[in-house]
Amino acid sequence: MAGLPGTERKQLIGMVVLRACSALIFTLLVACGGERAAQEPADTLETVTETGSEDVVAEDAPPEFENYIECGDLDAIGERGTLRLLAPRGLEEEALPRDGLPTGEWRALAEKFAHKRGLEPQWVYVDNFAQLIPALIEGRGDLIAVNFSRTQERAMQVAFTRPLEYVQEQLITRRDLDASDGSLDVVLRKGSAFAQTLKQQSTESRSFHPRYLEGPVTQDELLDGVTKGEFDATVIDSNLAEVLLPDYPKLRAEDLRDSRRAIAWAVRRDSKKLERALNEYFTEEHLIAARRRASALRDWEQIQETRTLRVLTRNHPASYFMWRGELMGFDYDLLQRFARDHGLRLSMVVPGPDVDLADALAAGHGDLIAASLTVTESRKAQGLVFTRPYMQVTEQLVTAADNMPETVSAVPVAQRLQGQSVAVNPLSSYYTSLVALADAAESSVDVLPVGGATTEQLIDAVAAGRYDYTVADSHLVEIEQTYRDDFAVVGDISGERDIAWAVRGDQPVLLKELNDFLNKYYRGLFFNVTYNKYFREEKRLKKKQRERLRDTSALSPYDPIVRKHAVPAGRDWRMVVSQMYQESRFNPKAKSFAGARGLMQVMPRTARQMGISGLYQPENGIRAGVEYMGWLEERFPKTLPFDQKIYFTLAAYNAGHGHVRDARVLAEQMGKDPNRWFNNVEDAMLLLAKPQYYKKARFGYVRGREPVNYVREIRDRYFGYLSVARNEQMSEQQ
């Protein structure tokens, strides 16, 4: 309320007191969540809209959000359709675009999470940090989504997510002020966790006296006050200081603690489903974001330098899919051979189903497209350059089996479609073919664009009667027909079309290498065996396609046990399942040559140190693996980025923490980044199998290829799970 004239200040205080009394009466009358208390607005202190004056409301303005009391978990939040995000007033200003400012990043991350769950994000502001936890517990918000320090005192009241990052608390003073001893008045926002640190750091020669500012205060106001000499000092987190202090050259920062403090979001202690969903979301977002940061426009020379080939693809039965945890597919197997022939690692990249692969390639998210892509003029116009074809298909009109009359063969496809609707993905070649067919037909053909839909999902929808027809390539139809009979082929809507891989026009050397590979293997023994494996051997095909992973409801036979132990530990259970498959192929009786046992292949000695025995029992084996991962993660610096800590911990699980530490030291000596796994520390790990390197390492020899492959395969399988989940989510939204 700083800056208000006296009269206005008194009026505003009176209004606040009146609203506070109303809120107290309302809270006493209504139990949290009882009888859907939220049907009545909760007039509390928080601001729930971002509109201007209340006196003038535009005629077309949406109604103001009226807050309510809700203490339920994710299911209850889903029923209301709104995710209420708590923040202290004053952060609206800090959330404005400013390079690197964490507040804006948290805001975008929170809103994206809401949209991903089909919820509308609604920011609910309270006066200061001290009111955040009471507002959450009382059900006036669902999630504290700000730069929120995880302290022991706070953790007794709310549940924290997995840390988003670790920061150092920094004392901010003027450069011309001798702050090495004496007494300092330190201004803080009310409710700040910094007061505890200041108390701990005070000594006889140097003492800190917290002074709290009432009302909403921005970080800039605190720093400006220190600059002008209005305050001796303030405290802010290092992630904020890195962005803000360059604008305040008269100020300096001093670390207050020996260790870093976790920054996390908070939910109610009984909101287990919301906590789990957030932790899964953080893991997914960090790993995908890390992959995007590695985007680059590369030709053959750059690909060889990194020894990694990034392939853009789709999750479907012809190109790339998962069967019992194993990555498979015709394109996948062909490119595995190509990568092996050239000493490369293969990285499959599956963009969201509503992302055009040509756009992803142009943006550098991959090096080529291999997704049973039909060669068309429109795709060439997008800048795609195709390899020689390696398959020919026709586009076939598909309908439900009970929509197929006996005389269909006598009716031309174009005539049968007159006045009918056909559902296809607008990014597919089918859409172009149907538009051309509709233009040539005597009567209209209703082409229904279904964004993000896979061919399989559209066949499902047609078989269920939601659409009259769809279109699919003949080889995909053959695969689907091996294990289902609820749809039928009406006929071809095109002649034979070529299937090929695609690159950009600025990749002539990669194009030549791919064509050389196809010329060498096409219709040879390897190619024919691989082709038959996916398109001809009916018994094998039927088994694998029937058991192909189509949704994430059951990734393994042990999902409930994995969730039971992974979720409280703040781990994404899907990553644990991916690791479990890598360790034991879901075999609870698995035993290695070294004596590791069970689903997570933990050594009995290691398990005993954690008080666990009977590793062949699924519950014990999974619990031991999750706890051991947590122990290993704590061995790494808290300064490691979120995504990198996951990769380093996986490598340590496989090779041992000591060998990973050796690899980090060697990576730094080689001029590589010791805090990044892929293309940095993993390269050093490979060298530790050579005498000239492992003889100088503290922990000696390690079969470096094993942890390198281990981490990559677990990551790729995890991304495979995510691609299935994205397809599943798009299907639910249609």
UniProtKB/TrEMBL annotation:
Pfam (any one): SLT
Alphabetical keyword list: Cell outer membrane, Membrane, Signal
Subcellular location: Cell outer membrane
Principal location listed in the UniProt entry: membrane
UniProt key word Amino-acid biosynthesis: no
Membrane among keywords: yes
Annotated Gene Ontology cellular component terms: cell outer membrane
InterPro entries with a match to the protein in the record: Lysozyme-like_dom_sf, Solute-binding_3/MltF_N, Transglycosylase_SLT_dom_1
Gene3D superfamilies: 1.10.530.10, Periplasmic binding protein-like II (3.40.190.10)
Chain ranges of the Solute-binding protein family 3/N-terminal domain: 82-304, 308-538
Membrane topology: Peripheral membrane protein
PANTHER family to which the protein is assigned, alphabetical: MEMBRANE-BOUND LYTIC MUREIN TRANSGLYCOSYLASE F
Protein family per UniProt: Belongs to the bacterial solute-binding protein 3 family.
Protein name, UniProt field: Membrane-bound lytic murein transglycosylase F
Native organism taxonomy: Bacteria, Pseudomonadati, Pseudomonadota, Gammaproteobacteria, Cellvibrionales
